[in-house]
Each structure stands twice: as C-alpha cells, then as structure tokens.
Amino acid sequence: METKTKLNEAQSLIYCRSNLRRAFDDFDDTDIAGISLVGDNVCITRTDGTSQEFPREKVCAAFTKFTNRLPNFFAYLGPNYRGPSAWRDNGYVLFKGWSYTHSLGERLNPNARFQARFADQLIHFDTKDALLPVLQNEQFDIGYLIAPDGFHIKPRLLDLDGDFDEEQEEQASFGEPYCSCGSFHRQLNHLQAFKEEIPHFKPRCKHLSWVEKYREFISKRSQIRIECNDVPEKCVAWWYAPPEDGNTKGRMTLIHTKSGVNAPLSHWRHYRKGETFTEDDSWELFDNMLEAGYVPYPGDSLQQLKHIWKKGG
Questions:
Q1: CB distance 118 to 112 below 8 Å
Q2: What does the domain layout of the chain look like in residue ranges?
Q3: How far, in Å, CA of 132 to CA of 91, rounded?
Q4: 281: how many CB neighbours lie within 10 A of its CB?
Q5: What is the pLDDT of residue 205?
Q6: In whole angstroms, what is the distance from residue 24 CA to residue 20 CA?
Q7: Average pLDDT over residues 138-143
Q8: For residue 159, is pLDDT > 80?
Q9: For 160-169, how does the pLDDT look when each residue is reduced to its tens digit (9 = 90+)?
Q10: Contacts of 63 (CB under 8 A, 6+ apart)
Q11: Comparing C-alpha atoms, which of 68, 70, 81, 69 is closest to residue 252?
Q12: What is the DSSP annotation of 56-116?
C-alpha cells in the first residue's frame, strides 16, 4: 500500500477543491477531511473515514487551463477603451475594466473615477516599489503592473577607471514574463515545487493571457489597415452597453459597411440583426471581423454615427 504524502505549497494550490471540481464534473467537494497524494493520484479523505482517488494529471491540466483562461475584451480596458499603458523598462500598467462593469460607469464606481483621474500620472512613479502600492491599493484597485516580455534589464556600466575588458560589454536584455497579481506571485514564490509537479512549468495568469490576445487584436487590425493604405472600405462600428445591475450581462451592438469608415448611416447594416451579443462574445466577434478583413472602430469615435447610440442602446 502506497504512503499518503502531505501537500507542499505548490501542490496545495494545484490539488485544491476548486481544481478538482474543474477536472471532474461529478466531484463532491463537501465533507472533505483532507487532501493528500498517493502515487500518481490525489487522495480525498472524507469526514466519515472513506477515501477516493483521482488522477493527478487531470487536476494539473485543470489548473493549467484555469491559470491560462482568457477574460473578455472589456475586463482589462482602461478609461475610454484604453489598452495597457506603457510604464518603463518594458513594463505596462494593465487597468481593471471598472468603466465597463455598470451602465452608470464613473458616476457610480469610485474605482472608475480614480482610474480616469490618475491614468496619465502613473508614468511618474519611477520604481516598482513606488508604483505597486498605488496600483493595488485596496480602496481603488486600479490594476496591475505587467511585463509580458519581461522587464528590460539594463547593461552593467563599464568601469572607466579600470582596464578595458571585452567581458564588461553587456547587451541590454529582457527577463521572464511578469505580473504583479497574487496568482502569478504565488506561482513564482514556489517555482521549483511547481516545476517538479508540472513539466515545463512557467508562471502564468489570466492577465498575461488577456494582454497576449489584445496584442494579437491590435496587430491584426493594424495589418489590415496597412494593406489598404489606411483607407479601409470594410469597417465595423461597435458599441458596448455595460450591465445595468450585477446580475445581468452587458450588450454589444455592431453595424458594418463596405463603403468606408466615413460612410453615412444609410450605408451601414446591423450585424446578425435580432441576435444578442454580450461581453462573453467580444473576442469571437472581433476575431470574425478581422478574419473577414473588416476594421473595427468604437462607434463613438465615428462622427457621423456617435449620436445614434447611447452606450450601445
């Protein structure tokens, strides 16, 4: 009989109740007295003394999938559809999407008001130690400091008083991807233990996934505009109406044209009229637009259309 092994810090984060639920649809997370490891399995001991075993590999896969999940397009947009804002040393401020959580926006949400007021001031914080307490202040919770390509590591200064040595010539380089969120740091703090549990493991989080997808979106949109000399004929105008309460979804409205971005309203048509789209459809909608060669624009940015919808109505 194989010995039960107590979980270390990394294993406790992987083989937790929530990941067991994600891995096994019929998993019962009640009446659990303890979780341990037995060989290649996770052993669940119940309060009545019985036990069950589940394959560790499937729980690891559920953990990996969850930490790489992709939030919707509006989840990390700053004020006025602002994407990640360049900070310094190849780092960015990733805003939480407070402006898109309720239809009243800044009028209701103090976090959204604080973001709008200080978004352009964050560049003046010149160190992580100075910036992070402001970004992740419990009261306003602006967002995160993120470096999807790693922070810029400056080359070591030459010793001008010593003899010249070619080994002193160091090129600027970049570190590993980074996010200031708690999930990323819990993985980083126990990195070796995670690597022993999951082959080829690297710390990840939903914020890195979102930034990667946003970059892809911007790159594809830019490529289409370049190919048409920045005069696209195929265009989509979109609006987003945030939820009116905490129990509903927001609503996306889209119209499209093949007559150019300055076409009058009479030349635009509803996209799949009669269907309802929410923030959960956002990435798929944008992917479909770009795949078909359409350039998306926020409807409020188009002068001839901006007065027609109010918050996507």
A1: no
A2: 9-67, 79-210, 228-301
A3: 12
A4: 17
A5: 98
A6: 6
A7: 89
A8: no
A9: 555 544 444 4
A10: 13, 14, 19, 22, 198
A11: 81
A12: HHHHHHHHHHHHT----TTTT-BGGGB-PEE-STT-EEEE--GGGSSTTGGGT-HHHHHHH
